[in-house]
Amino acid sequence: MSEAVGQARKYMTEATQGRGPEGVATPLVQIRREGRLALLCLSSPPVNTLTPELRRALLAAFEAAESTPEVQAIVLMAEGTSFCTGFPADTLAAEEPAPSLNTVCDRIEACPKPVIAALHGSTLEAGFALALAAHYRVIGRRSRLGAPEITLGVVPTGGVTQRLPRLVGPGVALEILLSGRPVPAPQALKLGLVDEMADSKSPAEAAIALAERFLAGERGPRPTRAIARGLRDGEAYMKEIAARRAEIKGARIAAPARIVDCVEAALILPFEAGVARESVARADCFDSEEAKALRHAYFSERRAARLDGVEGLRPAEIGELGLVGTGSLALGIAITALDHGLKVRLLGSAADQLVVAEQRITTAYTRAEQQGQITAEVRRERLAQFTATTRTDSLSGAGLVIEASAASTEARARLLARLEEFLPEDCVLATVADHGFAQMARDLAHPERFLGLHFCAPSQAIRVVELALRDDVSKQALVTAHGFVKRLGKVPVTLRARDGLIANRVQEAVWAAVDVLLLMGVRPARIDRVMREYGFPAGPCETMDALGLDHMRGAVAQFFATEGRRGKEAGQGFYDYASGQGPDDTVAEAILADLRAQGGVPELELSDRDISERLLLAAANAGARLLQAGVVMRPVDIDVVMMLAKGYPRYHGGPMKAADLMGIFQAEKRLKSFAAAAPDIWEPATLWHELSKNGDNFEKLNLL
Questions:
Q1: Fold of 320-489
Q2: What is the per-residue pLDDT across 231-269, written as a single tens digit (0 to 9) for each?
């Protein structure tokens, strides 16, 4: 460190005396003098993740600036697309290697010369801690800042929980910390998080101008720890703490309660003691199973979206998207594409269907404008990019055409063959279907450009798309489709095109397990309660009712449907919906009891754990079979699809991560104990034994 400080001081002195270059750089922090200002620039683009090396370089730069008499103020800025987005993803740990973030932030805050941070792009996590440690903050209008650590199940570090409430009070601080949502620049200015928002200038230029005004007015440092405006009303502060504690009571992860404890400490403990409590809270949360699962969920999305083996290829430019179909799924895809700057041409078979489709899209954008989500100008721009037509040849300008109808596989095959006649050879052709890929490709002249893009409903809200590849698909078609999905802000998960793909194959295994549980004597309401308590937004029986039991494959669901109990739309399914007191499964339970009696099926006594494990391991076993068959290459692909498409709780990490946390040997043992009741569901895939025998788990397969 002393050598780095000496080198930085040499740069500073040479710049002061005019002997050095105008801008001289350490490897990671550029140092430049402008009159009485030292400009320190984080130089690890694009997002300046705060590695130990960057932290050391930053400390050295600050020490050099402090010890240079001619420097009277410091502006901290950054290269790249963002000021700083936190620690490197692959180095997350309960405690950082020295120098710690706390050490760096304390050094910045203790600087005897004013420190102004110029924030652009995203300022998140450790970057947010740096910004709060600075004495003053200037932000770009399109920038944002915040503390997303709770989404990883941990408490922020770097004194964030102590400095933030001093600036903005407990209510705003806890909203930022407990939601994990970044704060946009205009709101940050209004809340007092920043001192100035740059409009006509860059944040760096505005920060330099602010520093010069401070020097002219002899304004000095303003350590955030010394600010008391957020702590003045102790009684109101503690009321806010109590209210937040009541709100998060029963939270499934520890981090929310520990964050509230830390913010409380900002009022009642000395600053250093509060920071120490923050560090202990972070370490305690870091190794919990929930935090491990949340980190797995975070990294899984990025790993699943990674595309290997296509080096040197770039996605073809898609200026116009062709969509075939007028149903809800097709319209959801259309709106998503319009929202992301694409022209959309919708092909329908009947003029009246297209009129309805246009009305629905117009209504969606009108509602968005009325709710303040978009301006009238944006509404007009997006609607101007949308065209509906019955002419197949009108899709000839599309770079990608997605068949999103509700037709049969045979009808889809004919439609795709007809479409191909009008499309240029470099246009990618896709279907939203989850089965029948070989049949649909049968009559195509260029099957190498045909693949599956399986959007799950509702397609606007679900952030994952299954990218199903036939064995002969071209790499260019793959790269283009992959880039299209990412352009929509969704996660593309690549797999082999086999019937059911991931989402539906795994979900159907769970529903088959529900069928068995119902015949074992478990009431629908109990199954749903157990799975909601596990963390699903809805139980499987109420979900099947919502989708329609006549669409389910299970014997029990089919029996209910033939009896007229087709689900929620029919007013009765596993539940009755006409009682006025919420769904009631009393009638369904009586029907199930009769079925058991007729079939001579004994009613079993099952614990809540027995119920949840049967359903969760049904999902994991279906996933293991997909891996074993080579349909999916990595367990994370299954986890991502089930979390994003089917509501699997993130703090359990998906079915394969949950199996890892249970233990592969224990999971296989439980599957064997369930298998006699329904071997097609619970007979363990041989992969379980292979992993157990070698002391491996599913995470090891993610590294292959």
A1: Rossmann fold (3.40.50)
A2: 999 999 999 999 999 999 988 899 999 999 999 999 999
CATH number, span 608-702 = 1.10.1040.10
Tokens of residue 328, six digits: 């809800």
Site of tokens 């009559």: 443
Tens digit of each residue's pLDDT (9 = 90 or more) over 180-224:
999 999 999 999 999 999 988 999 999 999 999 999 988 899 999
Amino acid found at 37 = L
Residue ranges of E strands in 505-641? none
Query: Is-catalytic flag, 70?
Result: no
> 275: phi > 0 → left, psi -120 to 50 → alpha, else beta; which?
alpha
Residues 429 and 455 sit within 8 Å (Cβ to Cβ): no
In the CATH hierarchy, which top-level class contains the domain 522-599?
Answer: mainly alpha
From the list 340, 518, 324, the residue with the least C-alpha distance to 420 is 324
In terms of Cβ atoms closer than 10 Å to its own Cβ (0-12, 13-18, 19+), residue 235 is: exposed
Q: Average the pLDDT over 451-471 and give the result.
A: 95
Per DSSP, what are the bridge partners of residue 495? 468
User: Does 2-284 carry CATH code 3.40.50.150?
Assistant: no
Give the domain ranges of the chain: 2-284, 320-489, 522-599, 608-702
Q: Which DSSP letter does residue 572 get?
A: B
State the catalytic residue, choosing from 149, 278, 320, 403: 149
Contacts 24+ apart (CB under 8 A), 96-100: 96/52, 96/55, 96/157, 97/52, 98/52, 99/52, 99/55, 99/56, 99/59, 100/55, 100/157
Separation in Å, CA 50 to CA 58, 261, 263, 530: 10, 26, 24, 42
Domains 320-489 and 608-702 share a fold: no
Backbone angles phi, psi at 258, to 5 degrees: -70, -35
Q: What are phi and psi of 434, to 5 degrees?
A: -110, 15
Q: What is the pTM of this model?
A: 0.86
Strand order in the sheet with 428-431: 386-389, 343-347, 320-324, 400-403, 428-431, 450-455, 464-469, 491-496
CA 42 → CA 27, 50, 193, 222, distances in Å? 10, 9, 21, 22
